[in-house]
Design goal:
By secondary structure, this protein is mainly alpha-helical. It is built from eleven helices and three strands. The protein folds into two domains: 85 residues, Arc Repressor Mutant, subunit A; 154 residues, GntR ligand-binding domain-like (Four Helix Bundle (Hemerythrin (Met), subunit A)), CATH 1.20.120. The longest helix has 22 residues.
Length: 256
């Protein structure tokens, strides 16, 4: 197997592990362990990490190593504020090109999310997150490949861990005593409202729903500063913390 093929394979497997929560933000990714686990040399491993750095999932520090990208509360808030403005634009750009099959699939994904959070054994957070990610990115598929799409896709990568935390918080919230939906019940309602706007081809209504949907997550996460406690300290060079902190130490891309 050539190095290029091996690097893509390693990147795909590691991407799934990061998005699936096996690695935590700030956790170091050791090249020698990754090479041994994938049965490859360190050359394709280095290239795989560069691929994931471009995706926003990994932060590489010159002569030090690679870590799963971590955001501070301020960085996450800024990212969500950008999403609140950019994703409605991207959805409006996407709507004219969305096919009926995509919209139908989004309806099925909404049902999958609802089923995942009402499972007899308790909410299936992983199933919810997979369907949620596919639901929203499917809505942008009509504008896939453009600059706005690339920025949004990267932000979805860097915020994956924090959406997991939001989902767990919302899933644990009981139904209000006065009645009405629980935390994830509100999320499901927003998905259904957004889907209705998409079916009607109404970008104005879709913008209002989507802004509210993203903002609600931002505000909920801001109310839980414990989420941003630094994990994965072992082997971290002194002074490195958030994505910005890592970037300050970055020089030429020489992977350790």
């Amino acid at each position: 197997m050539g190095d290029a093929v091996a690097s893509q394979r390693i990147a795909a497997a590691l991407r799934e592990e990061i998005l699936g929560g096996r690695y935590q933000p700030g956790e170091r990714i050791r090249q020698e362990e990754l090479a041994a686990r994938s049965g490859a040399s360190r050359i394709p491993v280095r290239e795989a990490l560069r691929i994931l750095e471009a995706d926003g999932l990994v932060t590489v520090v010159a002569n030090s190593g690679a870590w799963v990208t971590r955001l501070t509360a301020q960085e996450l808030s800024e990212t969500y504020l950008i999403r609140e403005r950019l994703e409605p634009l991207l959805l409006a750009m996407s709507l004219p090109a969305l096919g009926a099959s995509t919209v139908t699939a989004m309806g099925e994904l909404a049902a999958t999310m609802e089923a995942a959070t009402s499972a007899p054994g308790g909410p299936d957070v992983d199933a919810f997150l997979r369907a949620d990610r596919e639901f929203h990115l499917s809505g942008y598929a009509g504008a896939a490949g453009g600059e706005a799409w690339r920025i949004v896709a990267r932000m979805w990568n860097t915020t994956q861990h924090y959406r997991r935390e939001f989902t767990q918080i919302a899933a644990a919230r009981p139904v209000p005593a006065a009645g009405g939906p629980s935390g994830l019940g509100v999320t499901h309602l927003e998905h259904r409202l957004l889907l209705d706007c998409i079916r009607r081809g109404d970008p104005d209504d879709a913008e209002r729903v989507l802004v509210t949907h993203i903002r609600r997550t931002r505000l909920e996460l801001a109310a839980h500063p414990e989420i941003f406690a630094l994990a994965g300290e072992a082997g971290r060079p002194a002074g490195l913390g958030s994505r910005a902190g890592l970037a300050r130490h970055a020089g030429p891309r020489v992977l350790a």
